[in-house]
Amino acid sequence: MGREVFYPPIGIAHITNDITDLVKYKLNNQSKIIINTSAQPNSSPHLGTITTIMCSFALAKHLKKTLNIDTEVLFDELENSPAQTYEIGDEVYYKDLKHTLNDDGVDLATTYMKRFKKILDKISILSGVNYDIRTYNEFQKDEYVRDAVIKTLNDQEYFTKLLFPSSGNLHIRSICPYCYLGKKKIKVLKEQHTKDSVELIEECPYHGKYNTVIQKSNDSYIDINTQFRDLTKGVSFVEEDKINNTLTIMLDGGDWGGIWAQRIHTEGMVRLGYTNFPIRFFAPIILDWSGAKFSKSLYLKSDAYKNINQAFINYDNFINKYGEIGIEKLWNEVSSWIEEPKKFFRDYSVDYFENVFGSDCHVKKRTR
Prior knowledge:
By secondary structure, this protein is of the alpha/beta class. The chain has eleven helices and 15 strands. It has helices at residues 47-67, 108-127, 136-140, 143-153, 156-163, 226-244, 259-271, 296-301, 315-339, 341-344, 350-357, and strands spanning 32-39, 70-77, 82-88, 91-96, 130-135, 172-173, 182-183, 191-193, 197-204, 208-215, 223-224, 246-253, 279-283, 286-287, 348-349. The protein has a five-stranded parallel sheet with strand order 5-2-1-12-13, sandwiched between helices. Strands 3-4-7 form a three-stranded antiparallel sheet, with no helix packed on it. A hairpin with a 3-residue loop joins strand 8 and strand 9. Helix 2 (108-127) crosses helix 9 (315-339) and helix 6 (226-244) crosses helix 7. The two termini are 29 Å apart.
């Protein structure tokens, strides 16, 4: 028999009977609600990533049902994430997932996105909600993203302190157009800018100097890090919602809430002249036994979780142990969070999920 679980309401859950109540005030005859979430396709996704994706679909399903409005999930593929690093001279360079090949000659982003697409397809069927995938390359071409980047560079002193309080350097990377190497850490950002344009000046150890011009209307490739991406995403959604008559809600893992969302996102948008911001929800964080975030990156670097149920480590292990029935059980669990705010606005441990699956840990798998 499983242990009894308590759901004491905290924070916003005290004043919210239904999560829909946190969305209604933004509705003004929009044609669609879009739920945006993102992930790095650098491995088979673990339990935390899967539950965050499920939260996006469960929220979309709930809003569609209760508000009688069309909904969709927009998944941002972050193929720009570093995959390999190289020490060349006194500099550290990297290649991203899109430009790092596996033994079969296929880039890692494509390789791992196959798992993500399986998950997205399954949850789309379970929820009855359609989804779209946007690559990072597509995102960085967005005119509002590029315009926001230019404006931050024209206000470097403020944004350096806001977005990079410890390093003191703005991190906007460019990559060599020939071999796709980029500097992992930007010691000094070399650039020239005007009100409407920025030119990044960089040097490849193999191909020499190259320049990258950023304008609102062009599509030259720039690799902006997490802080810039979070800030500029908010800007682009506000602007595109005006044009498309949509309402976009950002849903990320709970580790991006709190002071990050307030400082990086909200204060940054205010500095750029905005008084209207996207609605943001943060999925429950999955915790290990000690209360720390169940970290995919930590697992990838070591066998840190050798004593944790290996089904929770990645999607492949989960399917091998629990099968399709396990996915449905996990979906039903996550859906229940969206139905009751006191279940959504909290975190969950891996021990909790052991309790959820209980005697079903060895259920007979359905054919894939």
